[in-house]
Write a structure and sequence with these properties.
Elements: E1 3-14, E2 17-28, E3 32-36, H1 43-51, E4 58-63, E5 66-67, E6 79-82, H2 94-104, H3 109-122, H4 138-149, E7 156-160, H5 168-183, E8 187-191, H6 195-201, E9 204-209, E10 212-217, H7 219-226, H8 234-256
Parallel strand pairs: 3-8, 3-9, 6-7, 7-8
Antiparallel strand pairs: 1-2, 1-4, 4-5, 9-10
Helix pairs in contact: 2-3, 2-4, 7-8
Bound molecules: adenosine-5'-triphosphate.
The site of adenosine-5'-triphosphate has 11 residues, from strand 2 and helix 1.
Length: 260
């Protein structure tokens, strides 16, 4: 089995707040993988560690089989990342920003032009190419951010809550884009709260709670693990597994404090 991303026993705290507690995660090449979990479960922290925006306290993260701390620069060429809250330079035009993104990813000038033509067409941003980013709507900015993450046609596209703020046509387009990419052997890794979308779109998901992987696999495996029955939805599976994780977490906490 070839994994594009592997997390082994990853720990991360922010000034005493324990965000990840020995997280293990495996994303396979050529799949759409979904990271789901309640608010504060550690999804954004996980994605930021993988893309190199945050340092973990301990553990091992491999991208394409290579420890990211051993080779901290090379692996970034493989990745396109779209954060949860997009922050783009308001003073650039869409085209200027995409040229800049292409240059820092090492794409040739000729190829950047081709990619911009393709991506602005795909995201219906052609008439905004020469508009300043400051003049764009929230959803358009999100599309520009995704276009920027795709400029070098990365093997691994990582998106934190990609559907938030995007209109239904845009969401449909994104889902098609993700499916097209995996057909080409590329990988899409998203975090999302939209469980019905995750159910239809993702090949496999991981459910995380309090910085730990509660369960991962395809829906069939998750139904078995949660004993929710053949007709259960991902939402039902999720609620059951999170409830069990909560009970276990409370019990562990009480045991630790000697109250059981
Ligand atoms: P959400 O679904 O609400 O976006 P999440 O699963 O992405 O949540 P994270 O943002 O990774 O969760 O947060 C995990 C934990 O780390 C939370 O307890 C959060 O309060 C804490 N945390 C995240 N970022 C910081 C920070 N910069 N400083 C302090 N604590 C943080």
């Amino acid at each position: 089995m070839t994994f594009i991303v592997e997390l082994i026993d990853v720990w991360k705290s922010y000034n005493g707040i324990q965000a990840l507690r020995g997280l293990n995660l495996e994303v396979r090449k050529g799949e759409i993988f979904g990271l789901i979990g309640p608010n504060g479960a550690g999804k954004t922290t996980t994605l930021k560690i993988i893309v190199g925006l945050l340092k973990m306290d301990r553990g091992l993260v491999k991208v394409n089989g290579v420890d990211i701390y051993e080779k901290p620069y090379e692996y970034k060429k493989l990745i396109g990342y779209v954060p949860e809250s997009v922050s783009l330079p308001d003073y650039l035009t869409v085209e200027e920003f995409l040229i800049y993104s292409g240059k820092i990813r090492g794409v040739s000038t000729k190829h950047i032009r081709e990619r911009i033509d393709h991506l602005t067409n795909l995201f219906e941003l052609e008439d905004k190419r020469r508009s300043l980013i400051v003049s764009l709507s929230k959803g358009m900015r999100q599309k520009v951010a995704i276009a920027s993450a795709l400029i070098h046609d990365p093997d691994l596209l990582i998106l934190d809550e990609p559907f938030i703020g995007i209109d239904p046509m845009g969401q449909h387009l994104l889902k098609e884009l993700f499916s097209e990419r995996v057909k080409d052997g590329k990988t899409v890794f998203i975090s999302t709260h939209m469980l019905d979308t995750a159910e239809r779109l993702c090949d496999r998901v991981a459910i995380i709670y309090k910085g730990q992987n509660v369960a991962s696999g395809d829906l069939k495996i998750l139904k078995q693990l949660s004993r929710t029955g053949e007709n259960a939805t991902l939402e039902e599976v999720f609620l059951k597994l999170i409830e069990e994780a909560e009970v276990k977490s409370t019990r562990d906490e009480m045991l630790k404090r000697g109250r059981l």
